[in-house]
Design goal:
8-stranded parallel beta sheet; 3-stranded antiparallel beta sheet; 13% strand
Length: 554
């Protein structure tokens, strides 16, 4: 077990264990190979100080989220804030903008931080790699510590990998993407690390502070020396107050290791409904550290369903596949994002099309390439400065669409989109005019269970039926089913969507699954029942799944 007090960054591990000088962090997870390279006494002291200074404010912000969801559920729609109108109306302020290596972000590849996926991303030819410890990572202790080790090795040019079949992987690209790491959101705990505050109260550590703190502490100087910097994608933010908390974490961290204020650059995912009403305010709070915003489409759809799940039939969305980027409320949200970013000197980064190629199926791959090209063509035409892809084979497709619009320019900040005027009513107009179908219900049940089964085995990004599924898309699937049940929906074919009907679909999925010794399908089905079929609606499916099903020995 490792522990360190908050007040002694250079204290040795032995002294830290015996000291009783205030707040401490205890590592409770199983011991892993090479973990001492990451969980050093100095790094633990830094993490302890982060929790001591910011842990209480984190809990306050999570309480704010609960109050806001309660208000929306009781008929109080989100709106543009009156108390921050002066920020929106002031045309003069700007964000820090791109740091070194972030000037051109036209294609960003996303993915988890295991060695193979990391090497593939670094060889992909993308401009940026989103190193994802959040929705694309199953948060086993092995994945979290292993991801930190992978990033450390990659930044120092030391990463290699040999797969189980003997295939060797190494970084061969002359120019590798700029790394932007995504820590887990404020809502998630890290159950393998325990924080004890000054009163002796013991709490699970913040996953956000653990992920951010370890990566920043070990890599910030190496990244700066390489001509880039410590850059982060910030997930699940809901308010300016949450952005201010991150900004304070950044400022303290820069001072702690002695680098200039503003060295950190953050790109904030606008992927919650409340955040869509506070884009200017979020940029303002982070202005010394902010590079841009990203349209996190899948979590945004999930946030819409979560907040309006009990508000009646007009807030019920159709089949998941029908909720595209061209429906009115998604157009309003993305166009407002581009306009807001460019007014403030921030990059606007588009989202991820879930289609992925299949190298064994030429026809399916051609269909995927056409879909992805159309998606990226729309984003480039709307004024986005870059976009996401989930597979190396899609980098060239996305780049071609952005090259056609950008040419030699690194971005299109000059496009102010003064033609865009978005109202609160447009952001909340969920009318699509498409039905819920029997196939759509069945697909949601099947995808969610199959994804959860892989997640329980440590895979956070999973190819299912030609789409890349992660925690965000699984959240859409389970929350839609919950809403359809509780809003007494019927399918287009006339089938009532009830608990009993969904139970039958769960049995069908289990019966059709390719079962094997050690699979997690039964656990996955039980999680799905818990987050979908019970009257209570967990805010995130990963919370009960993590606490109950990812064991301390994972």
């Amino acid at each position: 077990m490792s522990t360190a007090p908050a007040t002694a960054p250079a204290r040795t591990a032995a002294a830290a264990v015996s000291a009783d000088l205030g707040p401490t962090l205890h590592i409770t997870g199983p011991r892993l190979a090479r973990q001492d390279e990451i969980l050093t006494a100095e790094a633990i002291a830094f993490l302890t100080e982060l929790h001591h200074r910011f842990g209480g404010r984190r809990h306050d912000r999570l309480a704010d989220r609960m109050r806001r969801r309660f208000e929306i559920g009781n008929g109080h729609d989100p709106r543009f804030r009156d108390d921050t109108a002066h920020i929106r109306d002031d045309a003069d302020w700007r964000v820090a903008g791109a740091g070194p290596g972030l000037e051109d972000r036209r294609v960003e590849i996303t993915g988890p931080t295991d060695p193979k996926m990391t090497i593939n991303a670094l060889n992909s030819g993308a401009s940026v790699w989103l190193a994802d410890l959040e929705d694309a990572t199953s948060p086993t202790w092995r994945n979290i510590i292993g991801g930190q080790l992978t990033l450390r090795d990659a930044i120092r040019g030391e990463l290699t990998h040999t797969s189980a079949d003997g295939r060797a992987y190494r970084v061969t690209a002359e120019q590798t993407p700029t790394i932007v790491m995504r820590p887990r959101g404020w809502h998630l705990p890290e159950k393998h690390v325990e924080f004890t505050d000054r009163t002796g109260r013991r709490l699970a550590a913040s996953a956000s502070l653990i992920d951010f703190g370890l990566y920043f502490f070990h890599n910030a100087r190496a990244l700066i020396d390489a001509g880039r910097g410590p850059y982060f994608y910030i997930a699940k933010i809901e308010s300016r107050e949450e952005a201010r908390l991150w900004n304070d974490v950044f400022s303290f961290s820069e001072e702690y290791i002695g680098i200039p204020h503003g060295t950190i650059r953050a790109t904030v995912l606008i992927e919650t409904l409340p955040a869509a009403f506070e884009m200017d305010e979020i940029l303002y709070e982070l202005r010394d550290h902010c590079a841009g915003l990203n349209a996190g489409r899948w979590d945004y759809i999930f946030s819409i369903i979560k907040n309006y799940r009990g508000r009646g039939a007009r807030f019920v969305l159709p089949d998941r596949s029908e909720v595209t980027m061209t429906v009115p409320f998604m157009r309003a949200y993305t166009e407002l994002l581009v306009k807001t970013c460019h007014r403030r000197g921030a990059h606007a980064i588009g989202g991820m099309s879930a289609f992925i190629p299949n190298r064994r199926d030429a026809a399916a791959t051609e269909h995927t390439l056409q879909k992805v090209a159309a998606d990226k063509r729309r984003e480039a035409g709307d004024g986005f400065d870059g976009t996401w892809v989930a597979h190396p084979d899609l980098v060239a497709v996305a780049r071609a669409e952005f090259d056609a619009v950008l040419g030699e320019r690194p971005h299109q900040l000059h496009r102010r989109r003064d033609d865009v005027e978005v109202t609160a009513a447009q952001l909340l107009d969920l009318r699509i005019g498409r039905p819920v179908t029997e196939a759509g219900v069945r697909e949601n049940v099947s995808v969610a269970i199959r994804y959860l089964e892989a997640w329980l085995r440590g895979q956070g990004a999973v190819a299912i039926d030609g789409l890349m599924e992660d925690a965000a898309t699984a959240e859409i699937s389970r929350s839609q089913v919950w809403q359809w049940i509780h809003q007494d929906r019927r399918t287009q074919e006339g089938t009532a969507i009830t608990v009993d009907h969904v139970e039958g679909l769960i049995r069908d999925v289990l019966a059709q699954a390719a079962r094997y010794e050690g699979d997690r399908f039964d656990d996955a089905a039980e999680i799905f029942r818990e987050v979908t079929l019970r009257p209570e609606f967990p805010a995130f499916l990963t919370l009960p799944a993590y606490s109950r099903y990812l064991t301390d020995n994972d």
